[in-house]
Design a protein that fits this description.
Layout (H helix, E strand, L loop, with lengths): L10 H24 L7 H17 L19 E3 L8 E3 L2 H14 L3 H6 L6 E8 L2 E8 L2 E7 L5 E3 L2 H4 L16 E9 L2 H17 L2 H6 L8 H9 L4 H5 L4 E10 L6 H11 L8 E4 L1 H14 L7 E8 L2 H7 L1 E2 L2 E2 L2 E5 L3 E14 L5 E12 L2 E7 L3 H7 L6 E6 L6 E5 L24 E2 L8 E2 L6 H11 L12 H9 L6 H4 L4 H4 L7 H12 L3 E3 H7 L7 H11 L2 H10 L6 H7 L6 H12 L1 H13 L1 E3 L15 E5 L7 H10 L3 E3 L8 E4 L5 H9 L2 E4 H7 L3
Helix pairs in contact: 1-2, 14-15, 19-20, 20-21
This protein binds 2-(butylsulfanyl)adenosine.
The site of 2-(butylsulfanyl)adenosine (IVH) has 15 residues, from β3, β8 and β13.
Length: 701
């Protein structure tokens, strides 16, 4: 493994060795984390890692970011909880709450028990339901020995090293501690700290060197709960340490010292050094609990952390134990949920935004309003149908809702407040960014811009796609550079890449002589490209690399493909029939191809590209020696021994083109039973016809 001195490695050898090292480390990671059966020693693992880092430091263009959270499933060891971690029954209104306590009341018969659970007097704890990630912390003689996630309630994941980095989790309990206790509570992140974390993540992503950006996806969290969960489930505890995590304790699991009451337990928790939510209160009777619910709901928006309800717990542990649980929920506790946070405000305008993939999304611009402690100025309207269904219009007063996630929604219109002049919204049929047609395929909710190669909203994504490995495979061009080049008008379309000169890059931040030469070298090496990669690089919807290959194989050259696609715009044409006869290409894919070629902008961009790159005809992979290589075959009538699809796939695998209609260029027509006009036409044109058996004999079985 030692290998030669890093300084002496050629780039090709370095690349080879890195591949091998990454594979070995991945295997070791899996053996250690997933299979629980390490295959190499820690020292050997460290040596692999050092070698990898040394090579990457020397060849930064070959460096790859090691994967970060969320951790792959199975990366953490399993922990069986001493007592299962239960979940709570939910109540959504007062009636649900009354019913719940009625069933508690009905559980008992002895007058002295019934007296303790009377509706008017029952002793309850009411406290906020924290929107985070529940965790169980095991303390042996007061020392934190294990931390586990909830998992399925019976078995969770061992996240001890990570949870130990959270300052609010005591590593050692203060004062007198039980021999053994599991403390349960919620790991969470505050709203302001969550927003700051997302900003930091964005800045860190943009600061990555370009080659790392292409291999690393931008990661931001949707809400504080996801951020907390993602941060706890990190493979690297140092990342967890850098995250602003907090902890509220509220329950216990297996223990050698049960408390007498929930309330008494909270004072113990505080004495041991835990944070217990300050809004937790002890009340008597259901009405007092409901009053507490209202009071906490009123404070909700002002709280620094997200809560989604109030939890009621019967205070007496003796009653808790006797009530026990049904299924996975205790009979002695209930979560009384809050409705989603809503507010009313004026909808000033509806703007249609174009996403990076060309999807047109309507957005409501609002008079800023406070919803659950977050100032909201925009809300999503989802899509065209949604606007119509809710009949949302500019000038309307609308109800806005924040449901845990950061992007708020428009729930409904307050019709009483609609001004007389408000007009129904007309969804644009052209792209607001580039003017290309925006089409909405039948049965789909989303309308998309077809100007993929020229639309500024999509340009960055398209350029990024254009340089990826299965497309033009241009190393050293990350998103940050693409954005920068795009914004400074240096590269607006893919063809512009091939016009880049050293002088354009000199003096730009992050570009030195060597990286400039590397990039220009990588671009220049792609001036010749296979048709399949070229088609894939265009980023046409639904055309992945496999479909691009099929098209390249079927049409052979750029010219033939392009002419066929333009001709296929007429659904009655032979070109259209031919296109959808290709195995795995149906009307929906055909529609996207035709829409792409129908757009002038795209055709111009193609012309421009064809001037700067040489697109090589597709070379069929090793169909050499095949009796039907390069032959054009048409199937007609019903085949007995295989389906039409299988017959096509076999023919194509042997290097033949399968066409939908018979012409002079057809080499064979395979005639099944009940064949119609195609067989006649073959005879007319003198094209050779084969029975199914003859065909099978020809292809060797
Ligand atoms: S008590 C046996 N108290 O809500 C009941 N749970 O749906 C143990 N939660 O998994 C839980 N805040 O993650 C309790 N103040 C609170 C809570 C709380 C949030 C979570 C907890 C649990 C889920 C139940």
């Amino acid at each position: 493994m030692s290998g030669s001195a890093v300084g002496k490695l050629t780039k090709a050898r370095a690349e080879n060795e890195l591949k091998r090292l990454r594979a070995e480390m991945a295997r070791a990671d899996e053996a250690y984390h997933v299979k629980d059966a390490p295959e190499i020693t820690d020292a050997e693992y460290d040596a692999l890692k050092r070698r990898l880092e040394a090579i990457e430091a020397h060849f930064p263009e070959l460096a790859e970011a090691r994967p970060v959270a969320p951790a792959p499933v199975g990366a953490f060891a399993k922990v069986t909880h001493g007592k299962p971690m239960l979940s709570l029954d939910n109540a959504f209104d007062k009636d649900d709450v009354e019913r719940f306590f009625q069933s508690v009341r009905n559980f008992f018969v002895r007058p002295e028990d019934v007296k303790r659970v009377e509706r008017e007097t029952i002793a309850l704890i009411a406290e906020p339901k924290i929107d985070g990630l529940s965790c169980s912390l095991t303390y042996e003689n007061g020392v934190l020995v294990r931390a586990a996630t909830r998992g399925d309630g019976a078995v969770g994941e061992d996240v001890t090293v990570n949870v130990k980095t959270i300052a609010e989790v005591p590593k050692k309990l203060k004062g007198k501690a039980p021999d053994h206790i599991e403390i349960r509570g919620e790991v969470y992140m505050t709203k302001p700290e969550f927003l700051k974390l997302n900003e930091t993540l964005e800045a860190e992503f943009l600061a990555l060197p370009p080659e790392k950006q292409t291999k690393n996806r931008r990661r931001q969290f949707a809400n504080p709960r996801n951020a907390a969960a993602g941060s706890v489930r990190q493979l690297d505890p140092e990342i967890t340490r850098s995250r602003p995590l907090r902890f509220f304790a509220y329950a216990w699991g297996a223990t050698t010292e049960e408390p007498k009451s929930q309330w008494e337990f909270y004072s113990r928790l505080r004495a041991w050094g835990f944070q217990v939510n300050a809004l937790a209160d002890r009340v008597n009777g259901i009405d007092a609990a409901l009053t507490r619910h209202t009071a906490i709901a009123e404070q909700r928006a002002k709280l620094a952390y997200d809560i989604d309800g109030v939890v009621y717990k019967i205070d007496s542990v003796d009653l808790q134990d006797r009530l026990g649980f049904v299924g996975r929920t205790p009979r002695w506790a209930l979560a009384h949920k809050f409705p989603a946070e809503q507010a009313q405000t004026l909808l000033e305008s509806i703007e249609v935004q174009v996403g990076r993939t060309g999807a047109l999304t309507p957005v409501a611009y609002l008079k800023p309003v406070n919803v659950g402690g977050v100032l909201v100025a925009r809300a999503t309207l989802h899509n065209e149908d949604e606007i119509q269904r809710k009949d949302v219009r500019a000038g309307d007063t609308v109800v806005i809702q924040r449901a845990g996630d950061v992007i708020p929604q428009v729930v409904s219109v307050v019709l009483d407040k609609r001004p007389k002049h408000a007009k129904p919204f007309k969804f644009p049929e052209t792209c607001p960014e580039c003017g290309s047609a925006a089409v909405r395929p039948e049965g789909e909710a989303i309308r998309r811009c077809t100007g993929g190669l020229v639309c500024p909203a999509q340009a960055v994504e398209r350029l990024r796609h254009f340089v990826t490995r299965s497309a033009f495979d241009i190393e050293g061009l990350g998103e940050k550079s693409i954005v920068e080049f795009f914004e400074s008008n240096l590269v607006r379309t893919p063809a512009d890449l091939f016009r880049l000169k050293a002088g354009d890059l000199e003096g730009r931040e992050g570009w030195k002589e060597k990286s400039i030469q590397n990039l220009l070298g990588a671009i220049s090496a792609r001036r010749k490209i296979g048709l399949d990669r070229f088609i894939y690089a265009l980023g046409i919807r639904q055309i992945g690399d496999a479909t691009a290959k099929l098209l390249a194989k079927h049409y052979g050259t750029l010219g033939d493909w392009r002419r066929a696609m333009e001709a296929a715009s007429d659904p009655e044409s032979e070109a259209y029939a031919n296109l959808i006869s290709i195995d795995q290409i149906g009307p929906s894919v055909a529609e996207d191809l035709i829409a792409f070629f129908a757009e002038d902008h795209n055709r111009e961009a193609l012309d421009a590209l064809a001037k700067v790159v040489q697109v090589e005809p597709f070379v069929a992979p090793s169909a050499a020696g095949s009796p039907i290589a390069d032959k054009t075959v048409v199937f007609t009538g019903t085949l007995e021994k295989m389906t039409r699809n299988e017959a096509k796939a076999r023919a194509e695998a042997l290097g033949a083109k399968v066409a939908g209609s018979v012409s002079k260029k057809t080499d064979y027509v395979v005639v099944g039973s009940d064949a119609g006009s195609k067989a006649d036409k073959a005879r007319e044109l003198g094209v050779r016809t084969l029975t199914e058996d003859e065909w099978l004999a020809l292809i060797g079985g």
